[in-house]
Amino acid sequence: MSASGAAQAPEGRSDSRLSDGWAALINEGMQLMSAGTPLQALACFKSAAALRPGHPRTLAAQGAASLRAGLPGEALQVFDAILKSDPNNVEAWHGKGLALSHLGDQGAALAAFRSAVKDNATAWASWRSIAELALEEEERINAVQATADALSHICRSTAASPRLHVKCADALMHAHRFEEASDFIIKNGSRFPDESTAYDRLARTRYRLGDFRDAFAYMTEALARISPGKIPASPAKATFSQDAAIRALCEIGDLLDAHGVPFFLAAGTLLGFVRDGGPLAHDRDVDIGIFEEQPGMPDIFGILRAHPAKVLPPSARPGDRYLAVRCQGIAVDIFLHDRSQGAVTFGFSHTPGDIQWRLAPFGLTRVRFHGRDWMLPDPADHYLSGLYGVTWQSPDPGFASVISSPTLSDVSPYARAYYCVARARKCRLTGQHDKADALLAQSPISLAPDLCLQASSEDREAKNP
């Protein structure tokens, strides 16, 4: 008893309660972040920060939640507060870089990411961000290589997660270290999330090496080993927005026009505009064609790399026949067309046997769609007949030009079969079983019967009660 007669709490009791309350708020916030409700998580982290002012871990969680909640200005203040007391905090430098990037200050963001990797070569996420933002090709490629090195180092640890093993395999492929990626997957396949994912990545490495036969065989294994629990009974909700596709086309078009690069609507995008007046409802991307041999052609690769809203894939290299960017959340495929030897050819790579098309020569004409003038192959019906066959005017969601186009030229049957299986696998994982079966039926290489048979609705209901 004290002199006043009041009982005193045992020493440390209030500190213990404070710690318990802080831990509960942090755990609740993390659960809310995982559930996709960052604003609610942010409220928990702010309450936790009030219990432990200036605590780096709490502030880092608050900053991450602010970013996820679309509040980059608030996140920047939080990460700056961490760096004020801990100038070498790698996580805070990375968070600051992300916040600055969201605020549109790409130069300052790049500087922050450089600070993150300065004292921590294994900061793979910051290396990856440098690869996305770097304006100089040498720095971009160095960052791509450093991302692969960092993830390789991390994955030597037994504590590395299955997710990181997938990212490591992808990073090695982005760095064009395909043999190393193949060896890594074979050695660490059991540490991937599942067998199907491991075989899928192994197939991709063999494809990039031009080993189309093995790529096809491994992708077949990837399809066969999908866990039944991951196969939905019905198609997932479509994510392709035709309105967003048109906005993406306009934005890319404005960018190319500003640099004097003539382009035209190509492949599936041309098909949709000519046949339906706009992008195909069931499409996955938009397609643009450019004649690569035009006199005085600007550096398309440099134009895309320098534009902060267009992120080139890490695997892209100058001289590629095919470039992939994202704009307005839409994948935009840019094919460089070669007009020589009496034909127009375009394809995925320069590897012999890879997918490529050979069309009769064509010119270009201007046509107005959606309040804008577009350049189209002329005559468009000849182009579309060559790429999709004479029945191009009849919609066929199961048709894939990489598999069955009549103008595929010097393509390995195993490359075509690989795409049959790879795309069918994606369809299986999104519940598009009819489309998967249609793709597999087009394979030029025989497949095991059980891969081609569409599961009955009763079987699917049993798997997905």
General description of the model:
- With 465 residues, the chain is α+β, with helices and mostly antiparallel strands.
- It contains 21 helices and 8 strands.
- It has helices spanning 13-34, 38-51, 56-68, 72-85, 90-102, 106-118, 124-133, 137-154, 162-174, 178-188, 195-208, 212-224, 242-258, 267-276, 300-306, 380-388, 401-404, 413-429, 433-440, 449-452, 457-463; strands at 264-265, 286-291, 322-327, 330-340, 343-347, 356-359, 363-369, 372-378.
- Strands 1, 2, 3, 4, 5 and 6 form a 6-stranded mixed β-sheet that branches. It has a two-stranded antiparallel sheet with strand order 7-8.
- Strand 7 and strand 8 form a beta hairpin.
- Helix 1 (13-34) runs antiparallel to helix 2 (38-51), helix 9 (162-174) packs antiparallel against helix 10 (178-188) and helix 11 runs antiparallel to helix 12.
- The longest helix is centred in the N-terminal third of the chain and has 22 residues, at 13-34.
- The chain is globular, with a radius of gyration of 26 Å.
- The N and C termini lie far apart (64 Å).
- Residues 1-14 and 454-465 have low confidence and may be disordered.
How are the elements arranged and paired?
Blueprint: H1 13-34, H2 38-51, H3 56-68, H4 72-85, H5 90-102, H6 106-118, H7 124-133, H8 137-154, H9 162-174, H10 178-188, H11 195-208, H12 212-224, H13 242-258, E1 264-265, H14 267-276, E2 286-291, H15 300-306, E3 322-327, E4 330-340, E5 343-347, E6 356-359, E7 363-369, E8 372-378, H16 380-388, H17 401-404, H18 413-429, H19 433-440, H20 449-452, H21 457-463
